[in-house]
Every structure is written in C-alpha cells, then in structure tokens.
Amino acid sequence: MYAKSNPVETIREHTDRLLVEYERLRQAYGSQLNILSARDWELLKIMVDYHDAGKADGVFQNKICRYLGEEGSSVAHDRSVPHNYLSVGLIPFAHYNLSEDEKRLVILSVGYHHERKQQPEKAFIREVLETDLLPKRDAISRHMNLPLAERVSLEFVDYLERRYTPSDPSFFRYVMLKGLLHRLDHAASAHVPVEAGVKEHIGVYVNRFMQDRCFQKNELQIFAEGNRDRNVIAIAQTGMGKTEAALLWAGEDKVFFTLPLRVSINAIYNRITDAEGMAYPAAGLLHSTARDYLDENGGEFWEKLYDQSRQLSNKLLLTTIDQILKFPFYYRGFEKELAAMAGAKVVIDEIQAYDPDIAAMLIKSLEMIHRVGGRFMVMTATMPTLYMEELGASDVIELDSVVQGEFVDPGLTRHRIQLRDGAVEDRLAEIAERGRDRQVLVIVNTVRRAVQLYEEIGKMAGDSVYLLHSRFTREDRQLLERAIQHFNKKEKRPGIWITTQLVEASVDIDFDELHTELSVLDSFFQRLGRCYRKRKLNHDQPNVYVYTDLNHISGIGTNNVYDRSLVEKGLALLEKYDGLILDETSKVEMVRKLYDRNYLEGTDFLERFDEAMDFFDNMDPYKLTEKEAQQKLRKIQNLTVIPRSLFDEWVDRLEVYKTALRSEKQSIRREIERKTISIPRSMFFGKDEVGDPLSKRLLHRVVDDPRDPLSDVWVLDAHYDFDRETLQGKGISFQIEEQDLFT
After folding, report:
1. What does each C-alpha distance from 441 to 511, 515, 565 come to in angstroms?
2. Radius of gyration of the CA atoms of the chain, in A
3. pTM higher than 0.90, yes or no?
4. pLDDT bucket at 324, cuts 50 / 70 / 90
5. What angle do CA 56, 142, 5 make, to 5 degrees?
6. Contacts of 27 (CB under 8 A, 6+ apart)
7. How many helices, marked H, and strands, marked E, lie in the chain?
8. pLDDT value of residue 685
C-alpha cells in the first residue's frame, strides 16, 4: 500500500519515518516543551501512527499505480475524498481509552494534518469507508501493524466541523499537537531530520570566536548572556555588537533570528557560517530568495540545507518574519510555525523598521510565543514607546518575565548633522566634488529619485558613481549588495553610492559622508548607522546632510513610503540639533517622544496600529490560507517580471524547460528566476510617458500552464540597463505619471 510515489514509499514505511523523527524530536527538546505532558506525547504518537491510514483508499492507490505504470485494482466507489478525513475513520478510539477532550484533539489533528479546500462530507466519507476501507480492514491492519476501527462511525465528522478557537481551554494544547504532527510529517516527507544540529550550541561558538580574537564582551553582551532565561528588550546603538549579543542570549537553545531585509540576513549568515568567522555548522537560511542564495553560496549540500531550513529544522535559523511569525493570522496550518517556537528563542532585530500594522502582528506573535513556552529578544536601536506600552498592557506576558536594558555611549560622537531646507538635487555638484576624495553615500526615499540622481551625478563624476535599489534583477541586486560592502570595506577608494532605504538595516558599511532625504526618525537614525558606523567623529564639520523640504522630498505623503505627519513631527524634534552633534542618547529620547501615544494623536500611523491590534485581537481562525496570510503581511501584492530583452535571451532555454526532467527543470527555472524583478502591482494602475496604461507593458506570462511555478512570471516591455562588469546601469526603468512609491 503506497503512501508516496517519488520516492516510492509504502504507508508503513512513511509512518516509520515519522516515528524516527518523533523520537528524535522528543529526545532533542522533549524536556523543554513544558506545555506538553507525558500523555500528550502518547497522543502525538497515536496521531503519527494513523495519520496516513486513509491512503489505503482504492482511488488513492490507483492514482499512484498509474503514476508508477502499474496496474490498479477495481474500486467500489469513485469518490475522491482527502485521505486525512478517511484516516480518522480508521482510528479505534475505544482501544486507546481516550477521554472526550483527547478524542477531539486526535480527530482534529489527524483530520486537518492537511488543510484542504474540500470540506468533510459525511455521505462521501461513509461511502468510501463502507465500500472500500472497512472491507480491507484486516489487510490494512496487517500492513500498518495497528488495530483499526471495527465499524463505521461518522461521529468524528461532527468533531471536524467544530474546530478549536482561541477561547477554547485546550486551544494551545491542540496547536502544539497538530503543529508537531505537521513538522514530523513534512520533515519525513522531505527526508530531512525534524531537528538538526541539536548539540551545536551557538553560544559556545560565539564565545570561542571572541576569545580567539581577544574580544572583550561589552555591557550589552554581558547583559544578554546573563539573562538567557528571560525575555529581553535591548536598546543599543549601532556598532555595539548586537548580533553577538543575541547569539550569546540564545546560548544552548534553538533560535530563530529575524531581520527586516534579506541583504542583512545574508550578511549575518555569512558571518556566522564562514570558516574564518564563527564557523557555525548548524545555521539555516530562509527567505523568499534563500534558495538562489544557497545555490550560489551554500556549498555542495545546499539543497539539503535549504530543505532543512524550510522545515525549521536548523538549530539556528536566520529568516524574515513573513516566513515564521505570521501565525497571528491564524491561517490554515499556522500551528506548524507556532509549535516550532515552543521551547525555542526568537530574536526580532530592529522592530522599529516595520510598518505599524506589521509591528502590531509582531506584538501578538510575542504573546503567542510566550503562551507556548518560547522566549523572545527584541533588539533595536530605538524602541517606540507605543510598542513598549502595548507589551506592558498584555495580560499574557508577565512583566517579571521581561528584562529591559539600554546600552548607549553618550561619549561616542559619530554624527554632526546639517539640516538643509531644500532637495538633494540642489547640491549635486557639491556631492560629486566630495566624492573625489572620500566615500559618499546618498540615500533617497524612492527608486525614481535614486535613478534621477544617478543620471545627473554620473554626468559630473563618471564611473565612480554606483546605484542600488530594488529594481535590479535578483542576481544583479545580489551582485550590487556584495559590491557596496566590498567597495566600502576592502577597496577604500573614493566614490559615490546612491541607494534607497535598502541599506538601512544591518548592512555593515561605514561611509565617510551621508547625504539623505529626511524620513521618519527611526528610519533616519538607521541611515546614520551607515556613516561613521564604528568611528568617532574627529573633526568639527558635518558628516551628515539632511534635506528637509517636504514638498520636494520623494516618498512623502498619503499612501506613500512615509506618513507626512510623522515626518513633520520628527523634523520638529530634530531641528534643535542642526549643526550640532547628534548623540546616541538623544536619538533614543527623540524616538520615545515621537512614538508616544499622545504625540501621535491624529496621525495615520496611530490609526493603522490601533486598527491592526484590533484586527488581530478579533481574528477568526482558519479563514485564510498561508499564501493569503503572507500576502496580507507583505501588504503589497507584487508582480514578478522579466524584462523582454532578458527574456529573449532565454527563449531557447525555456523550450528546453518545457520538456525537461524534474531536476533539470528546477535548475532552468532558478536560472530564469534570477533574471526577474519584483514590482508592486499598484504601479500598473498608472500611465506611462505617452499616456498609455502601464499594464499594457505586461506582454504575456512566461509559462501558460497555471500549475507551473513560472506561470507567475510576466514578460515586461521595459528597458533594462546594467553592466555586470562595470556595475553601471539603472536597472529596469519606465516613466509613470504617479509618484513612484517603492524602494
């Protein structure tokens, strides 16, 4: 009796794989999952034993036989009923002496270990059980080496129609059992361990790394290491070694380390895994382009590493929040993510970098992590007062379980700012001149403004000007992200980089001078960290120039990158520092004042935050799919496009792709995906330079078959400009009438 066709596995063989992973999980972290009792582990084993028994259904078996080229058998019905519903009908509940609550836990966990669009229907389930499965009961029992139900009882369908809600006393017990069943099943199916690198303690590696280099731990790192058993909120300035602090806090525990930007995650992943760095062997990487990154940088066994990362197996996983912290949406299957948090630690780096509705989700995530016995560390340069108040008001997180620390050095003077009541384009000649003898960074709020400045300054400074934004292809953007760090840390030659806020968070660059459009204060302070990152200012001239004319700054306004009222309120706080040193303590205090609920009164920011908190407080479970939850989290629905000129170069490979075997198909698909760019759908509501709807530029899908992963990629009639040898070019470009909103 088959369970899988590729590779071929019987139901018993697949179940045995789950049992191996069950034992691995229990031995690795069983003692740390305090939310589970010994009886819960017994229930989980019952779920594992029976979760795929329904695959003995003749219709399912014949599908696999046809795939394998084997002859099937006659079946007394033609119903296609999901096996997870049928599996429940074969469980002998009386044999295991289950209480009513335990019975419900088992039924709902097994019945929904796959989340199907097709809802359970009694008549169809009865037909399959009576005409096919129960007549084969003895054969199935011998194959599974398990007792099975002796008669058809459809009482379980009534249970399936009454799913748990957060108000149920057993809700989090159910979340853990169902979530762990998901994890075991997915790991066994992917042929990876449910937990990998269990004995590789990141704290040991960090300590060894610091000792080998004679690094002394600073106050932040000592604080983090000394509070491993607590939830932590640490406010620390740039350059304080926050990454090392977080890893010391993780110690011997499993940890999920989240950051806002993929470039930041990739950089930290390299630092942790590099043989000349910490050389940590049990780190995983998970974000929307992690597969490509690991393919290029992950070594011989990158595919296994990627599969382990997807299954949340690694002892340390570097990831984005949309991959692991979207469970407050209660989407169908959310239990897998939340159960992985139990007994583990979660680091949220730079919480102030997220929009208010996403921050609301993160606060709810912390509450839920606490409920299942996980711990969290919020690590940030500036902590909005509003978020602190919301955490403090929680009736879930006890205040004595949270320790707070603030680590700023008022004596470290790194930035003298000069406010300029104008636009960046008013000072292009000055910027070009300064780029002749120093490294100058220019940060603006939109791609359109960045491209404009690149063109204008390029006329004055030639090939010493570079551009980085989100509208380069995946492979070219990765190339540029590496190049800016190499330029800044290795080459040390003069030049100018023009970027968007892509470089704000955790990119380890240290330019001599910064010219930036004003943004909201917390974003602005992140930008400061890319200039004199670890150096003390040793002269009395400004090294940061801030352009403050809100009528000419890009990306300011309703439905734009930044809320104008929030930028205005921040500017009012910033003005008294014009021409002066802006120290770290002042930055923290300004953010506290800006994000005070009273100071925010009447802003879109506060309205969005409160609406989001209310939304999550009243969320109905199981209304969304995982994909829908991810889209809501990302907020902006993007289109993946490939410029026509690049597509034309790949037409021949595409023809090979259509008839290729699976492994070759995956390789070709990744090659094509590296040529793609993610662009907000909202852009295509605008018009181009001749007045035509921009949507006309979407020529056709790369592949017509909606089942193919490449069917989501569109060919776009737009110019693409980039030279990989010289690193010169503007990326994809077209003019539109509406304000260009995105980074």
Report:
1. 6, 6, 26
2. 28
3. no
4. very high
5. 35
6. none
7. 30, 21
8. 66
